Amino acid sequence: MPKQNRGVEVLGTLALIPPKLENFQHVKVRIEGEVAWLTLDRPDHNLLNERMLSELAGGINALGEQSDIKMIVLDSAAKTFCGGIELGEYTQRRVFQLLDSFHAAFLAMLDTSKPLLVVVNGPAFGGGAELAALGDLVIATPRARFAQPEIKLGVFPPLSAAILPYLLGPKMALELVLTGETISAERALDLGLVNWLVPESELQSKISEVIGKVTTQSGPVLSMAKKAIMASLGLPLREGVRNSMKVFLNELGELEDSQEGLRALVEKRAPHWKNR
User: Fold this and answer.
1) pTM for this structure?
2) What are phi and psi of 8, to 5 degrees?
3) What are the φ/ψ torsions at residue 143 (nearest 5 degrees)?
4) Exposed end of the chain (fewer CB within 10 Å): N or C?
5) Looking at the domain covering 4-215, what would its CATH class be?
């Protein structure tokens, strides 16, 4: 019989958490059916240190290898979603180690095959704003605020400098990075940093709604669709289309689920995914 802390009871089945994830200190892991939750939990402001960043990368990478997981949700146990990187306790020498951990965590977010939903119910500054920017889907409440204040400290955010132009265009990326100003959740929604903005009282129902819409689909097809989109970023349109068609023709056709989807359409019934 597994230990009590190895999982949670979901719909009559025990969802096991890999042993190494049980020992995480600043990122709490739970698995509910086909959804894995990573919760930032480092009081008081979820400042990112080496251990927390390593746990975030390790959690995403480990969960990304589990075929029964269809989606990863990243949220926060604190009033602040994430206050950014903690630099105060680091010497100049150790800052490089911290930045290596930072890079590994964000590469894990970019590279995971699982759809990644980020829930922002509080300030997201610096590295915290970058965590939100790298979510495939983002839900925010009016309590959320976003900022890249690094310029005020005599540095600039290297990840945002690369990713914000893709998401927002160069003009908005330059505004956010060069001024370091804080923007509201409402403006983040208008800019496209956030997919849905809901009152805090409706947050849980919105999370459940989005999870339901995504996890109803075939797991492998979700991963292939994400792969096609992410691999086309930065490519010229024609090359991006060729890349997407390659995934569609060479990988999708081998799936049982893609054949089941077509059969279900012809037979006018709901598909029964086998997730393979």
Assistant:
1) 0.88
2) -130, 150
3) -70, -20
4) N
5) alpha beta
